């Protein structure tokens, strides 16, 4: 992908991978330029979402971003807090996050997944005005949907290794399995 192709993807929207009644609806911060250019969530090389999803036991093998629709067969889906693509999440405003949280809550009320898993605790804090939120299950619910804040799988998030991130995702998987 050329730099020009990536820049042309700025502000594009990547379609959700969603259905009603999912076990877990994963929610990214917003699409990066590689995701917007390809039309696939978490598409940037170095993003750890797909390896972590597999290592945590959510999928029987590591899916590629182009195979994202296969998630639905496992009761999983993907959306974003903010729909528009940007090179970095820090290009988004607090207002965009708050409006994204409002729209996300409406989507969750309509689709009724058992869990909403926001991959990025800082985005979660801003979108849902919960400045003290920590990684893990939240007290907040959206209708009957429970909420879990996950670490951001971006390769830039050096605080979390592939292993510790997979362990946190596995905690969510165990909670989702208990409730099925």
UniProtKB/TrEMBL annotation:
Q: Which UniProt keywords apply?
A: Activator, Chromatin regulator, DNA damage, DNA repair, Hydrolase, Isopeptide bond, Transcription, Transcription regulation, Ubl conjugation
Q: Which SMART domains match?
A: UDG, UreE_C
Annotated GO biological processes are: base-excision repair, AP site formation; epigenetic regulation of gene expression
**From what organism does this protein derive?**
Streptomyces ficellus
Mind listing the GO molecular function terms for this protein? DNA binding; pyrimidine-specific mismatch base pair DNA N-glycosylase activity; uracil DNA N-glycosylase activity
**Membrane-spanning intervals of the chain:** none
Tell me which residues make up the Uracil-DNA glycosylase-like domain: 15-176
Name assigned to this protein: G/U mismatch-specific DNA glycosylase
């Amino acid at each position: 992908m050329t730099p020009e192709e990536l820049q042309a993807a700025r502000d594009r929207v990547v379609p959700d991978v969603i259905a009603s009644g999912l076990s877990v609806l994963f929610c990214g911060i917003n699409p990066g330029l590689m995701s917007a250019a390809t039309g696939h969530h978490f598409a940037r090389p170095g993003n750890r979402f797909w390896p972590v999803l597999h290592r945590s036991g959510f999928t029987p093998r590591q899916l590629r971003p182009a195979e994202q629709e296969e998630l639905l067969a496992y009761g999983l889906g993907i959306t974003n807090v903010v729909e528009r693509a940007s090179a970095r999440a820090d290009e988004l405003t607090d207002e965009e996050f708050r409006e994204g949280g409002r729209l996300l809550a409406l989507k969750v009320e309509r689709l009724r997944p058992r869990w909403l898993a926001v991959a990025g605790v800082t985005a979660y804090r801003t979108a849902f005005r919960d400045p003290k939120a920590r990684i893990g299950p939240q007290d907040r619910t959206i209708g009957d949907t429970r909420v879990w804040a996950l670490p951001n799988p971006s390769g830039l998030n050096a605080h979390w290794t592939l292993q510790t991130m997979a362990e946190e995702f596995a905690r969510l998987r165990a909670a989702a399995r208990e409730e099925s």
